[in-house]
Design brief:
This protein is an alpha/beta fold and 436 residues long. The protein contains 13 helices and 16 strands. The longest helix has 25 residues. It binds zinc ion (ZN).
Amino acid sequence: MKALLERNKRVQIEALKGLIKASGVLGLDPARYENALKAVTPRQTAKKVSEKGTKSSTKPSASVERRPPASKVSKRAKLLKSKVEKGRLVLQFDRRVERGSIKHFILERKGRILYVFDFKNAAIPFSIKRYRGESFKEIRIAQFDPKRVRVVIETLKAYKPKLTTADKTVTVTLPGYSKKVKGGGAKKASSKSPSTAAVQAAYGASFGKNSYTVVIDPGHGGKDAGAIGYKKRREKDAVLAVAKRLKRVLEKRGFRVYLTRSRDVFVPLKKRTKFANRKNADFFISIHANAAPKGGSRYKSKGIETYFLSWSRSGRAKRVAELENRADFSNKNFYTKNTYLNSLNREKIIESNKLAIDLQRQILASLKKKYRGVVENGVRDGPFWVLVGAQMPAVLIEIGYITHPTEGPRLFNPNYQNLLAEGIANGIESYIYHSR
Ligand SMILES: [Zn+2]
């Protein structure tokens, strides 16, 4: 048990260290992750020790240092920069990309033509990036699976894309590309490594909020009531109300929003992330309410926590995950070890962790404006089935304890629900702002 706890702690600390490192590379401010790391390390140790009543002698920093260096783990070509320039899409990687590692095929769907380029053994440091243009409908760059980056150029008319590789730079011509400007840019780009400022500029080249899609997933529904709380009120009703308010708030701010359910119906867990993938969502936000186990302290537990997916088996994450997973055993075979592992790529974990940090912070700030006694339970990771398979940053928010005599009724209070929705929306915007 102690070994498992130590492992979980390592995963969390490692993820935060990764964030700090990534912040440096991307020219972002790492302060908030450094603070989070500082905050998480001693507090978590203290908590686990008191929970288990045993003494831990392992220093967290020592555990981290024992891990293999990052260079040994990853041999993937990282995409450093992408831009649409002079009728071409220019992709710059951190190492040489062989022509043979790129697979190209064309899909036709309902009048849309998708030119797909799969880069084997490649990674991107963001979840998805889109470009819109006049000569094409959309370009999407995303981590297709842990080892593949997929670039999709969507057009309404057929054309013949030309793919060129020159050392670390890959260029794909777009519809309407004119031969007059051939050459130049790609060679120039590959001749020197991009400065931090240049990388940042490339990341900032994405679009306004209205190009972001959020899938909100109100937990449970129909035959699955979720947790039954104080005065027999049901989790499925509270989370649906919050989800609907969140949808309105996000739409007002220019987001495209979908709900996995907008009524009191049962939706299998597997279908929820599938829906988000199909909608090409940039964010998957699952909303739940926590419940304390029956017993002496049932009416004492309260607070808000945000989870992202991991193999974590820490006592607390396991208990909450079991509660949330219980709803749906209809697709048990789907959740095989392989599916789980495939959906757990490092980049997605880091992005989900970042999103969870921003959400948790903003939710707390929003609620504390009007309510007293709001408890911060922090960002945690756990094995939540509903997050498995999501191809975008995905988190599960426990908006409070439905079993608590004060917090439970609050979850049904429209004012409290609005503040929750505002906080979640602020968290998403904060994440977008910080990842530019
Ligand atoms: Zn739930």
